[in-house]
């Protein structure tokens, strides 16, 4: 009898945990889908981007939706967008993402690149690279979008 009660309690906890995990996953996926749908509407209404390659998010002093794609003429472009404003530039003039990845891999050989996104702070446009090193610290590196020069480097230690 006691074994049945314990097994029943364990099953109830597992079902509750699975339900919670499903709800959390569905909620996060739903928010991501809504974000992308909103950004696609912004792109259509406020830019000349005809083909979207990626939608990402940059979170600095101000958060932006970051859209990389091609305009009506086929030129690679990037747009940083909020509900109120849009900044735009050409990606064919930028240092390629692949080159930034290679430079970071050489500078941090035992680390993992976790995120790369074009960033925008005031009028500065850059590649923001997030790297997790072997000690679990996160490095945020800003490389000038057009010259590739290192602009800033921040390290966050795990607590």
How would you describe what is shown here?
The protein has 159 residues and is an alpha+beta fold. The protein folds into two domains: 2-90, Roll (Nuclear Transport Factor 2, Chain: A); 97-156, Nuclear Transport Factor 2, Chain: A, CATH 3.10.450. The chain has two helices and eight strands, in the order H-E-E-E-E-H-E-E-E-E. It has helices at residues 2-46, 97-107, and strands at residues 49-59, 63-71, 76-81, 86-90, 112-121, 124-132, 138-144, 150-156. The strands form two sheets. Strands 1-2-3-4 form a four-stranded antiparallel sheet, with helices on one face. The longest helix is centred in the N-terminal third of the chain and has 45 residues, at 2-46. The protein is extended, with a radius of gyration of 21 Å. The protein starts with a helix and ends with a strand. Mean pLDDT is 87; it is low at 21-29. This is Cell wall elongation regulator TseB-like domain-containing protein. Residues 44-81 form the Cell wall elongation regulator TseB-like domain.
Strand content: 35-45%
Strand order of the largest sheet: 1-2-3-4
Mean of the pLDDT scores?
Answer: 87
Rounded to the nearest angstrom, the distance between the terminal CA atoms is 45 Å
Query: Please, how many helices?
Result: 2
Helix content: 25-40%
Q: Per the principal axes of the C-alpha atoms, what is the gross shape?
A: extended
Biggest sheet details? 4 strands, antiparallel
CATH class of the largest domain: Alpha Beta
Architecture of the largest domain in CATH? Answer: Roll
Pfam family, one: TseB
Protein name: Cell wall elongation regulator TseB-like domain-containing protein
Domain Cell wall elongation regulator TseB-like: 44-81
